[in-house]
From TrEMBL:
Name of protein: HEAT repeat-containing protein 1
SUPFAM superfamilies: ARM repeat (SSF48371)
Top-level taxon in the UniProt lineage: Eukaryota
Swiss-Prot/TrEMBL GO biological process terms: negative regulation of insulin receptor signaling pathway; negative regulation of phosphatidylinositol 3-kinase/protein kinase B signal transduction; negative regulation of TOR signaling; negative regulation of Wnt signaling pathway; regulation of cell cycle
Domain Tuberin N-terminal per the UniProt entry, residue ranges: 163-377
GO MF term list: GTPase activator activity
InterPro entries: ARM-like, ARM-type_fold, Tuberin, Tuberin-type_domain, Tuberin/Ral-act_asu, Tuberin_N
Length: 705
């Protein structure tokens, strides 16, 4: 309707309707007229021109108490809620102050204060100092006595706007900023918490806040010393405000800050951390703590981007002081930084390594961080083993890991086990035995702590499997090194663990991988003719024999006689003797033939605990029955061993066990025809020398037949 009206239409409407505002006109008609002109002003706002002053004159001079609310609504429309005061700039300030009591009486206080905020923001130059002074007084009065929260909040907004625009935004802003910094540094003001908090708030908002005053050209370095000084008040509210200010500064201008500013920022954060550490009332979940850690995270992001221009060392010192409540990623970066400084050319480097492992492995509970600490330890050891192996094991590894079997974290135990294994593999001094002692505790942990409760998953004994694999590697690699005690210790641990499996079969009943690995290792062991212990090379598969370790062979006659007596009984069970993957019957045949024919062995004179006057013939009576039992294994002997066997049996024809030898030769004549054909004349000649007795007659006739 109004958009189509020419410019003079507003004037004509005003001339026709202004009589409706006379006090004698009914209230309803007056209010209707105010509403009409409010709508007219909104619709024709850009075309009002000089008519704006007429409408303002109406609002100002119309003093009917009943019309305060509609007058205010017309003022809101005329000024765009306080933003535009063209044609009445000099009058609006005093009028609003004069009108303030009447407005509060009709319940329009919040809206009225909002108008004041816009007047100050957009027209501060037209508001006199006396008006501002009176406005501040009245606003403070409302803050203290109003029960309406929205009204109080709007009052605070008015005060904020007054200070930011009418004080800090003018030539007095520099002096005001200086005064607030003096307040922060003045020890006599420390009891007034709200004064200090307000000063911190306005200083930071003026310089780097969301509504910063552009005329104040000061760097953060000029005011941060005052923030640092005010922290001596030890008040949590003030510290929270300071921390919010620092967070705002870092978030908004972190890329622009230089080293002096960062130095002050970090000093302030250090002071706040010290307050948190000493003040029991400051909980880890408090707002101060939360804001502090958010700010540290922001600084870490700047460091990751390479855009942090302060002291990296001081940042990590901050993180270290509050590491128990820092995120895992932050602590991992800290550990990496600390590990880079643990090198022998730095003083007290071993003590620093000990402190790192103690704090982030022994005292820490988070798995990822503990594993990372062990990785650092492993890396330092691998780099410095040649010169400092003994010190590292004695001062760090053993003290920190000697009770690792009690750790409830399977992943940590597994990583620690691998570290100990790697260290023991390269260790060549007596410290290796200490490492093996710790591995022994880990190895037997399930058997000692599990009771008879079965282990159901391989994952539950991952650390035990790591130890078993490690001990096998230690044993097979140290076979060829001195001292041999390391390999022997590893072997005994494997044997002891295997025996424990059968003493408590229920524990590992469902998990067989460790038994399999140990048996696989033992079954691959070999011994040469000199009793040297050997093991196949992992790459070529060729058996390599140790020059230091020999297989223990018995020279006690009591033991050897028992074995010789029982072997023939065992030989009757071919399924037990012959394995799926091959057999070593030829080795047994060689050993037995040597006992009969090899005089260099000095048998039986070299044996211990033999009967008095124990002759060679008596010794052969124990060996020859075992040789005779080998005749049935002729198919597993090569021709050379077959001929040696026949010659030894032929030698036995003149012994006390000639009957068994003849029976064995009969089997050889039937089954080993090629070997027997070559030796038959010699055999027949020796048979002819045997005395004809009833005992030998039947076996002899069987052979000749």
């Amino acid at each position: 309707m109004f958009n189509a009206k020419p410019k003079s239409a507003v004037e004509k409407l005003w001339a026709c309707l202004k009589d409706l505002f006379h006090p004698d006109i009914a209230k309803e008609h007056r209010h209707l007229a105010f509403t009409f002109f409010s709508c007219l002003v909104q619709g024709q706002y850009e075309k009002l021109g000089i008519m704006r002053s007429h409408f303002f004159r109406l609002i100002k001079t119309h003093d009917v108490a009943e019309d305060v609310a509609p007058r205010f609504e017309l003022l809101q429309s005329l000024t765009e809620n306080g933003k535009d005061i063209k044609y009445f700039e000099e009058e609006v300030g005093p009028f609003l102050m004069q009108w303030m009591p009447a407005i509060t009486g009709v319940g329009k206080t919040q809206q009225f204060l909002a108008v004041w905020v816009n007047v100050i923001k957009f027209n501060a130059a037209y508001v006199d100092e006396e008006v501002i002074k009176e406005l501040v007084q009245n606003t403070c009065f409302l803050c203290c006595w109003s029960n309406s929260q929205p009204v109080v909040l709007t009052c605070l907004q008015v005060l904020d706007t007054v200070i930011m625009r009418n004080l800090l935004g003018t030539h007095l802003g520099h002096s005001a900023l200086y005064t607030m910094c003096r307040i922060l540094q003045d020890t006599s003001s420390q009891h007034d918490v709200h004064l200090l908090r307000g000063a911190v708030f306005y200083v930071n908002m003026a310089l780097w806040g969301t509504k910063r005053v552009t005329t104040l050209k000061y760097t953060a370095t000029s005011v941060l010393p005052s923030f640092l000084a005010v922290l001596s008040s030890n008040n949590s509210i003030v510290m929270y405000e300071v921390m919010l200010s620092i967070q705002r500064l870092v978030n908004k201008f972190g890329l622009e800050l230089k080293d002096p500013a960062w130095d002050l920022v970090l000093s302030i954060m250090e002071a706040i951390i010290e307050h948190i550490e000493t003040d029991s009332r400051t909980s880890p979940a408090s707002q101060v703590t939360s804001t502090l850690h958010d700010t540290i995270c922001t600084i870490e992001q700047l460091m990751e981007l390479g855009q942090f221009h302060g002291s990296v060392r001081r940042v990590f010192e901050l993180i270290e002081r509050c590491s128990p409540v820092r995120p895992e990623a932050s602590v991992l970066r800290l550990i990496t930084f600390l590990s880079n400084n643990i090198i022998p050319i730095r003083s007290d480097w071993i003590q620093k390594l000990h402190s790192l492992v103690d704090k982030y492995f022994k005292q820490e509970t988070r798995t990822t961080i503990r594993v990372r600490a062990l990785d650092v330890l492993s890396n330092v050891i691998s780099l410095n083993r040649p010169a400092y192996e003994d010190e590292l094991i004695e001062l760090i590894v053993v003290p920190q890991l000697q009770h690792i079997e009690c750790d409830p974290d399977i992943l940590v135990r597994n990583v620690a086990a691998q570290l100990l294994v790697d260290l023991a593999l390269e260790c060549e001094n007596k410290r290796c035995l200490e490492l093996l002692d710790i591995l022994e505790k880990l190895l037997n942990r399930p058997l000692e702590q599990q009771g008879d409760v079965p282990i159901t998953s391989e994952q539950d004994v991952a650390d035990v499997k790591t130890v078993v694999v490690g001990l096998i590697n230690i044993f097979t690699s140290k076979l060829f090194q001195l001292p041999s005690s390391h390999a022997i210790k590893a072997y005994k641990l494997l044997v002891g663990h295997l025996e424990a499996h059968y003493l408590k079969p229920a524990v590992f009943e469902l998990v067989s991988s460790t038994r399999y690995l140990i048996f696989e290792c033992f079954l691959r062991l070999r011994a040469n003719s000199l009793y040297g212990l050997g093991y196949p090379d992992s790459v070529t598969g060729q058996v390599r024999f140790s020059p230091y370790l020999l297989v223990d062979h018995k020279e006690d006659w009591k033991v050897l006689s028992l074995i010789l007596q029982e072997v023939p009984q065992v030989m009757k069970n071919k399924a037990l003797i012959l394995s799926h993957h091959g057999n070593e019957i030829d080795l047994l045949a060689s050993a037995l033939c040597a006992m009969v024919s090899d005089k260099s062995l000095g048998l039986p004179e070299s044996l211990q605990n033999t009967p008095p006057k124990f002759t060679r013939s008596e010794f052969h009576t124990f060996v020859l029955p075992v040789l005779a039992s080998l005749a049935s294994y002729h198919g597993y002997l090569d021709p050379g061993h077959q001929q040696r066997l026949i010659k030894c049996l032929e030698f036995g024809l003149v012994s006390r066990c000639s009957r068994q030898c003849v029976m064995a030769l009969t089997i050889c004549a039937l089954e080993m025809k090629d070997a027997m054909y070559k030796l038959l004349p010699e055999v027949l000649l020796n048979l002819s020398k045997i005395s004809a007795t009833v005992h030998i007659a039947i076996p002899l006739l069987e052979f000749l037949s």
